[in-house]
Write a structure and sequence with these properties.
The protein is α+β, with helices and mostly antiparallel strands. Among the domains are: 5-60; 110-208, Chitinase A, domain 3 (Roll). Helix content is 51%, strand content 19%. The chain is built from eight helices and eight strands. It has a four-stranded antiparallel β-sheet. A two-stranded antiparallel sheet has the order 1-2. A two-stranded antiparallel sheet has the order 3-8.
Length: 246
């Protein structure tokens, strides 16, 4: 896939891959919008600004100051410490038997929360959102066709389909509206930080018991974290005996 050049800052290219790497830090509740053009443009502007500040710092020779050298030495120590921690926990694993045993002993903890399956149409203005709603309600277009034609979210190409999601996965305003909506009815405009939405909830599922297959990945991840934490604490105790003067 072509690594498109998005900008050039003082002769240095800012590429699509640079932006994708920079966007790895997008908050969890905004992950659904990572492919939204307006959202990506906001992050591109941030990345360009950082590159410009870097260039200005180089021209002022801030990297030759005592303060810079002190920060770099601190970074060197932090990196070495992180590499040593990775070395300490690299061989730790969780078996299927361990994970299933934990599930059987803690079934009450694994109850699937409420979910909804929904579609949406994202627009820049409340007025545009209302116009699209009127067209749908007037029989001019189906919700799915309107999403394909008008939505600024990439999900529009799928007729606005967002799939199934639970609480905590969408921005608060969107989540509140979706979980409060009646199945089959269109609600909106709903304002969020990304624009105005029309939302159509197609299915709702209440809380239910969960099978081991549904949560095995989560259990393994949690048990792995616990094992790694135990190994970390044991290593800290060992290193205290080795390096701390009494």
């Amino acid at each position: 896939m072509e690594n498109k050049v998005l900008a050039v800052v003082a002769g240095e290219e800012v590429t699509e891959q640079d932006l994708n790497d920079f966007m790895e830090n997008v908050p969890q509740d905004q992950q659904a919008y990572r492919t939204n053009p307006q959202f990506r443009q906001q992050y591109l502007e941030q990345l360009i600004a950082l590159r410009m500040f870097t260039k200005e710092g180089e021209e002022l020779k801030l990297d030759e100051t005592e303060e810079f050298q002190k920060i770099m030495e601190g970074a060197r120590k932090d990196i070495l410490a992180q590499m040593m921690i990775s070395e300490t926990i690299k061989d730790i694993a969780v078996t299927d038997e361990e994970a299933e045993s934990y599930f059987q002993a803690n079934k009450r903890r694994f109850v699937k929360g409420e979910t909804v399956k929904a579609r949406h149409i994202l627009t820049e203005t409340e007025e545009r959102c209302a116009e699209i709603l009127a067209e749908i309600e007037g029989g001019g277009k189906t919700f799915e066709d309107a999403a394909k034609e008008y939505s600024t979210c990439p999900s529009g190409q799928r007729g606005g389909d967002l799939g199934e999601f639970g609480k905590g996965q969408m921005v608060p305003e969107f989540e509140k509206a979706a979980f409060g909506a009646e199945t089959g009815k269109i609600i909106g405009p709903v304002k969020t930080s990304f624009g105005y939405h029309l939302i159509k909830v197609e299915e709702k599922s209440g809380a239910s018991d969960t099978t081991y297959a549904d949560v095995s990945g989560t259990i393994k991840a949690n048990l792995l974290h616990q094992k790694q934490n135990d190994a970390y604490n044991a290593k800290v105790k060992e290193l205290k005996e080795k390096y701390i003067q009494k």
